Structure formats: structure tokens, C-alpha cells
Protein: (2Fe-2S)-binding protein
Amino acid sequence: MDIELTINGETTTVEAGSEQDLATVLRQHGHIDVKCGCDGGTCGASKVFVDGDVRMACGMAATEAEGSDVQTVASLGTQDDLHPVQQAFVDNFAVQCGFCIPGMIVQATALLDENPDPTEREVREALDDNVCRCTGYQKPVEAVLDAAGRMREEGVAADGGRPIGGEPADDTAMGKPADAGGCCGGGCDE
Ligand code: FES
Ligand code: FES
Structure:
């Protein structure tokens, strides 16, 4: 059946079987920044925003998303202009194989939206259902804390824009490298 939904700001019609999960349908339609690392809601790799809430896309029927606003990690920034959370993951060497990173960044962004100044414990608790087989979690946690600090300092809201009344962001102060790569969901096709 055809379902209409908005994916990363673009309203589109996608074909989805009645049994198909949202992660599979997103990937079939080119949104391969959504990762599938398990067989049902235990690794966190498939996290996306659905109408602003973090959902594991693998655990949601695609048909349930009909009419929804779906945002994958790729909606947060671009390869040339990463979201502060994405940039912090790159700068803190928090990305190894990269497979878990899209889900981790979606979850971290949601955390910083609710709590712009989390403790290390709060970051660890927020990421506790994002499984990473590579990093030992230390670097991702440091990256989220760093992102939180940068966003507070720069006046950047969790959606990458400025909070109401916030000062303009100064990208140069964020130490952005000219070519920020890595599997941080910044628009690469890996
Ligand atoms: S693939 Fe969705 S939680 Fe693992
Ligand atoms: S699973 Fe490889 S970086 Fe997390």
C-alpha cells in the first residue's frame, strides 16, 4: 500500500507492506542513514524522530507513521555544516565503525533538547539503550557533554538553530575542520 509521510522535510508517498517496519521502508527509499543493528528494538541504531519523539524505527510499522513527520539523523546537519552534536562526535573521535552513531546522535539531540546541561550520569542514562560494540561509550559520552557545552556557549538550540533570544552562533569557535567526515549522519552514503 502507499502511505504519505514527511521525511526530512519532504512530503512523499512510499510503498510499504502491511508487515513492514518503518526502518526497512526508510532504507528502501534511500534513507540509509537509518541503521538496523538487531532484529527488534534492542540496539537503538534505528532511532529516528517521529513527530518529534524518538522512536526505534525497526519497532514501528511503517503504516503507523502515515501522515507523520519523520526526521532521520541526516536532517540535523549536512556534510559541510554539521549539527553541533554531530560535530562534537567527530571532534571527540567518538565514531569508530559508525554503525550505532545515527541512533546515538538522534538520542543525544533529544536529550539536549530537554536538558541542555546534563551530567555525565544523565548522558549515560539517556544512551543506555544505544548499543555500541566499538567505543566503550566513553568517547560518545564525552562528545555529548562537549556538544552540550558548545551549544550553551554558542546559543544553539537542539534543532541546530538558535533558541529564542539566543546569541548568534559563531561556527569558527566550534573548531570545524574543513572536511568533517565520518559516519555521523552528516550526509555521507555509507
Ligand atoms: S535495529 Fe532498531 S533497535 Fe536495533
Ligand atoms: S558500533 Fe561501532 S562505533 Fe558504535
Q: What stands out?
A: The chain has two domains: 2-75, 84-174. Strands lie at 2-7, 10-15, 47-50, 53-56, 69-71. Residues 168-183 have pLDDT under 50 and may be disordered.
